[in-house]
Amino acid sequence: MAPLIQSVLHPAGVQAARLNQLWWVMFWVCTVVFISVLTALAMAIARGRRSASNASDATLTGSVGAAVGISVAALLVLLTASEITGRDLDALKAQNALRIQITGNQWWWDVQYLNPDPSLTVVTANEIHVPVGRPVGIVAKSNDVIHSLWIPALHGKRDLLPGRQSEIWLQADRAGVYRGQCAEYCGAQHAKMALTVVADLPDDFERWLSHMRGPAPPPATESQMRGRDVIERGPCAMCHSIAGTLAGGRTAPDLTHLASRSAIGAGSIPNTRGNLAGWIADPQHIKPGNKMPATGLASEELQALLDYLETLK
User: What is the pLDDT of residues 25-34, one digit of tens each?
Assistant: First the structure.
């Protein structure tokens, strides 16, 4: 997968571009103010106390008045730029928008691609795909504490409050892989709560979405069958869900297409067989405090489970 992009200074969408423009306006206005203050300070020091004491009241009054006027003008420029940007950010809503619901949990993201037909709803976790050039309306929720969804290259921050629902609109203008994250401290593993956003060309996105609507592929070998049994008859099924199997838990990430994701543990480590084995054997070592307990699987069971999980693409 391509390198992740996470920078407000490299916008990849119309919303992020407007925020980037606002950032530069604020940067240059504040730069001018900073340089002006330093210049005035340097002039005052150079003149010395004696010269300052001989200055007329009219001169001092004029200087103070000019400084106040410049400050008010700078604030008005920033206020106007902020108001214009805010209106532009609300202008993206469209009838043909893709609708996604993202729910923050300690410390992972539950993702649902909404559809009026429940049978076409797609459930995944910690990684989303969006089509280039199409508006995306994200419904943001939290299951526990306050989180904040932030995808710097595509939009600004949006808080996720328990018991409330908010909305954010974004659009990717070029294909790429972008990193999102929780931007509100939400507990011990706040730093390991990332979200990967893949912007696909429209045809590629439709193929991905169609594939994601399908169930997990059936196991093809005896070891893979054994691995599926480990999930269905063990503790995994109490929390995780895999479409097409007896695993139907909803308190942990959906694993139906786990092998297609680039990372595990909400961006904590790359999704490789070795990392996945370490995560299953001792998740607390990789991400202390997360709600997944050690499974206590025997070596044979673990290897069979890995064989099965690797087929979930």
Answer: 889 988 888 8
